[in-house]
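Field log, afternoon session.

UNIT: design team B
ACTIVITY: writing a sequence onto a fixed backbone
BACKBONE:
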């Protein structure tokens, strides 16, 4: 992602992508480390939306686009679900994550780098094997090199769309919503009721009030 920001600052065009065989300092949301050994797809795409866009909406659009691209490229892959705001799951196991980082010049958005990390054929750390998964577990022979182009094209296409999520996008998200209907304890206590057009998470609290959550860590109740 740092390399992609450097390219964007030098004028690289929308859709420019850069991939790493391995990362020693991969990062996820909220400053967390992202383990990136050989065998995974570690990809960043420069997006230059022509209108108003937000990292939250782009993260969700990219998630939908990446899910479609992976399922098309890997016949037999179980249906991918999206955990708001940026994780892709198969069943109860995380297989991919998306991180959007924007750069601004005052009020003007200059670019957004969309980082995509997909566990393809890489070895997971022992502590992640119960909560994480790789695509090769579900599709033998899956390789990161074959996925780089379709995934980068999908992200670049999603990055051209601006404004709030439309009805078609919201409907597509509902079909992939990993959190939908689940009870959560944070960032507010309640049951997830979907997302809003601006990408906010909707949580129905015990008293019936629906709260909008713009950001935060979601904790699912056991």
């Amino acid at each position: 992602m740092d390399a992609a920001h450097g390219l964007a600052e030098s004028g690289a065009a929308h859709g420019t992508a850069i991939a790493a065989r391995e990362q020693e300092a991969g990062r996820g949301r909220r400053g967390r480390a992202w383990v990136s050994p050989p065998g995974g797809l570690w990809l960043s795409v420069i997006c230059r939306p022509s209108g108003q866009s937000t990292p939250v909406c782009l993260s969700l659009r990219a998630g939908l686009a990446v899910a479609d691209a992976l399922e098309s490229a890997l016949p037999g892959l179980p249906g991918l679900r999206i955990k708001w705001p940026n994780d892709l799951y198969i069943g109860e196991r995380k297989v991919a994550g998306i991180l959007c980082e924007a750069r601004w010049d005052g009020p003007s958005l200059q670019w957004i780098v969309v980082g995509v990390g997909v566990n393809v054929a890489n070895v997971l750390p022992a502590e992640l094997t119960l909560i994480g998964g790789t695509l090769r577990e579900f599709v033998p022979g899956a390789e990161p090199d074959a996925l780089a182009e379709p995934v980068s094209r999908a992200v670049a296409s999603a990055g051209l769309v601006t404004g709030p999520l439309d009805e078609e996008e919201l409907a597509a998200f509902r079909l992939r919503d990993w959190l939908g209907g689940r009870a959560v304890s944070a960032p507010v206590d309640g049951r997830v009721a979907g997302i809003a057009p601006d990408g906010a998470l909707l949580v129905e609290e015990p008293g019936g009030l629906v709260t909008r959550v713009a950001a935060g860590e979601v904790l699912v109740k056991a």
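LOG NOTE: The chain has a mean pLDDT of 94.
NEXT ACTIVITY: expression trials, pending approval
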